[in-house]
Amino acid sequence: MAKLKLTYFDFDGGRGEPARLALHIGGIPFEDERIAGKDWTAFRDKTPFLAMPMLEVDGRRVTQSNSINRYVGKLSGLYPKDDWQALLCDEIMDAAEDISVRIGNTINKDEDAKKKAREELVAVHLMRYLEQFQAKLKAAGGDYFSDARLTMADLKIFMLIRWLKSGVLDYIPKDLVDRVAPLLVKHFERVMSHAKVAEYYARRKAA
Ligand SMILES: N[C@@H](CCC(=O)N[C@@H](CS)C(=O)NCC(=O)O)C(=O)O
């Protein structure tokens, strides 16, 4: 098997976390390189596109979170083999990426501009995305987003919902998901209670 090194920020979330989780769930050995925020400026130039996550496969570097998610999803058995189910999985991962970019674009604004941008985001895009994610979850059977089992799409949405519910995003009410898309909260709890996910976070907490 190829030698893997996954490089991402040193926190339990964000674009790199679904791949970390997938490799853990699949029991795939990898070097888990974590970059502290304070070291990012110095490290940035070592990345091809001045961003993370970054995966090294036998020393060859690749980037782009969803490309990495598909690759590690295949290695870990968390990516559908059926083309239609794979398309459903990809759609959810890419839509989650789109809304994450919109949220990310508000982070460095000054307070007034952030408030305005986030209130607009809640009213328009977040409402729509949450409703659509919920509708797509229902259409896929209600438990998982594709293939009637845990896939990379579930891990990607899991991170997004955790972020939205965490309360760290001022002006985005932390009960928004509960109010707009309660099935996504159930889905979040379903993923969190997956034996390997629960074990991963218990281990992280103890570390
Ligand atoms: N399209 C890229 C975006 C990567 C990206 O923007 N990563 C963020 C962290 S989640 C980053 O490295 N930010 C630091 C910076 O831009 O200085 C992907 O999906 O991997």
Beginning-to-end CA distance, first to last residue: 28 Å
SS strand fraction:
5-15%
Poorly predicted runs are none
Shape: globular
Instruction: Find the count of extended strands (DSSP E, 2+ residues).
Output: 4
Mean pLDDT, nearest integer?
98
**What kind of sheet is the major sheet?**
4 strands, mixed
Helix content: 55-70%
| Spatial arrangement of strands, main beta sheet | 2-1-3-4
Count every helix, treating DSSP H or I runs of 4 or more residues as helices. Answer: 9
Task: Identify every distinct bound molecule in the structure, by name, code or SMILES.
Answer: glutathione
Rg is: 17 Å
By secondary-structure content and strand pairing, the structural class works out as alpha+beta
The helix-strand sequence is: EHEHEEHHHHHHH
Q: Could you walk me through the main structural features you see in this protein, from its secondary elements to its overall organization?
A:
With 207 residues, this protein is of the alpha+beta class. 58% of the residues lie in helices and 9% in strands. It has helices at 17-26, 40-44, 65-76, 83-104, 111-139, 152-165, 176-180, 182-192, 195-206; strands at 4-9, 31-35, 54-57, 60-63. Helix 4 runs parallel beside helix 6 (152-165). It starts with a strand and ends with a helix. Glutathione is lined by residues 14-15, 51-53, 63-65, 97. Glutathione (GSH) is lined by residues 14-15, 51-53, 63-65, 97.
